[in-house]
Amino acid sequence: MSAQDNKALVRRFIEEVVNKGNLSVVDELVAPNFVDHSAPPGQPPGPQGVKQAIQMYHGAFPDIQMTAEDIIAEGDKVASRVIFTGTHKGELMGIAATGKQVTVNFIEIIRWQDGKAVERWAVTDMLGLMQQLGAVPPPGQH
């Protein structure tokens, strides 16, 4: 598939899986041998792990919306600069719902093969998320 085709797959994943919560699309877009190099400890590999992560974030942020600000592709890899927003209405990693609205930035690279994601690397601003939720004080505060 072309780099443009792979970019379209990233857009489809964001819109259908993340924004609409349609987990059946995960099986179409994620290879059985998918490896998320940035997965939290305990997340299973493959499509099941992706579904678990999506469910966790949808449980914590039911109104989650993700927007790809930039999508750059070369060869079989697609890099995206992404922003997600949502309201913290459910437990997330041991943090009870706060009702706070958050905006989180991350950058990810996904390697595609035959129309399916096979590898992912990501850097997420988890510190910023934790500060927005009040779990970590902002800089200069104790």
Verbal overview:
This protein has 142 residues and is α+β, with helices and mostly antiparallel strands. The chain has one domain (3-133): Nuclear Transport Factor 2, Chain: A (Roll), CATH 3.10.450. It contains four helices and five strands. It has helices at residues 3-19, 24-29, 46-60, 126-133; strands at residues 30-36, 65-74, 77-87, 101-113, 116-124. The longest helix is centred in the N-terminal third of the chain and has 17 residues, at 3-19. It starts with a helix and ends in a 9-residue tail after the last helix. 19% of the residues are buried. The model has no long low-confidence stretch (mean pLDDT 95).
Question: What is the strand and helix layout of this fold?
Answer:
Layout: H1 3-19, H2 24-29, E1 30-36, H3 46-60, E2 65-74, E3 77-87, E4 101-113, E5 116-124, H4 126-133
Parallel strand pairs: 1-5
Antiparallel strand pairs: 2-3, 3-4, 4-5
CATH topology: Nuclear Transport Factor 2, Chain: A
Structural class assignment? alpha+beta
Task: Name the overall outline.
Answer: globular
The residue fraction in helices comes out at 25-40%
- In total, the number of domains comes to 1
Order of helices and strands: HHEHEEEEH
Number of helices: 4
Percentage of β-strand residues? 35-45%
Biggest sheet strand order reads 1-5-4-3-2
Query: How would you state the average pLDDT, rounded?
Result: 95
CATH architecture: Roll
Largest sheet: 5 strands, mixed
Please provide the count of β strands.
Answer: 5
In the CATH hierarchy, what is the class?
A: Alpha Beta
Low-confidence stretches: none
Radius of gyration from the alpha-carbon trace, in angstroms: 15 Å
